[in-house]
Design goal:
This protein is mostly helical. Helix content is 46%, strand content 5%. It contains 10 helices and 4 strands.
Length: 213
């Protein structure tokens, strides 16, 4: 009976279901494999941002700052830095709050679950509820150093570029910098060696906003 009244109250007061909270079990002390630590640090230290992309990069930064309070509310629950939350949002759905943080699918408030990877998540009543769920899937570092941050973001998108030396550095991180020219997974499991990413890489955004400075 108590269950019924709680459901009834949520229904008419439109109180969203309690979000999934990131559990301590998914936090790791030693997060980035040792053979990748130098990889990320060297790329970060030697990264040069393309001047020709300055106006587009400025748009990404503007969106990130404009919605910072919303991203900070997610950090308070998930422990993921708000700058990382915002970058993932920009890359997954172009900063559109109608799209879930998992993969940008516009299913919020529809009662539907995700169809793309990760499949079967949801349904979600709010963007915040979906974001907290998305961030609960992947293990997190205890220390959000730049190396751990970049490794987290690459794993979030998928390690395909990292594991195959024939492929470029991930555009998800390095697009609009000297570390990326062309080549991209244009859908799950489908790679094009000639496609050029039109999105700004997360590393570039983080550098522009002075992440960890």
């Amino acid at each position: 009976m108590r269950r019924f009244f709680r459901w009834f109250k949520r229904l008419f007061n439109k109180v969203p279901a309690k979000p999934i909270i990131v559990s301590p079990e998914i936090v790791e002390n030693f997060f980035t494999p040792s053979n990748y630590i130098g990889h990320y640090q060297n790329l970060w230290d030697s990264m040069e941002i393309r001047d020709s992309k300055a106006s587009t990069i400025a748009w990404y930064v503007k969106q990130l700052i404009r919605n910072s309070e919303r991203y900070q509310s997610i950090e308070a629950v998930s422990n993921v830095p708000w700058q990382v939350v915002g970058c993932l949002h920009l890359l997954e759905s172009g900063g559109d709050f109608a799209g879930v943080l998992h993969n940008g699918e516009k299913i919020i408030g529809t009662g539907k679950k995700t169809r793309l990877v990760p499949k079967g998540r949801g349904p979600f009543d709010t963007w915040e509820q979906a974001a907290i769920d998305a961030l609960s899937i992947k293990k997190q570092p205890k220390d959000w150093s730049i190396v751990n941050t970049l490794h987290y973001c690459e794993r979030y998108n998928g390690p395909g570029y990292l594991r195959d030396s024939r492929k470029p550095h991930s555009p998800y991180l390095w697009s609009f910098s000297n570390h990326y020219t062309k080549g991209k997974y244009i859908s799950d499991g489908k790679y094009s060696s000639t496609y050029v990413s039109k999105q700004c890489g997360i590393a570039v955004i983080l550098k522009e906003i002075g992440y960890l400075d």
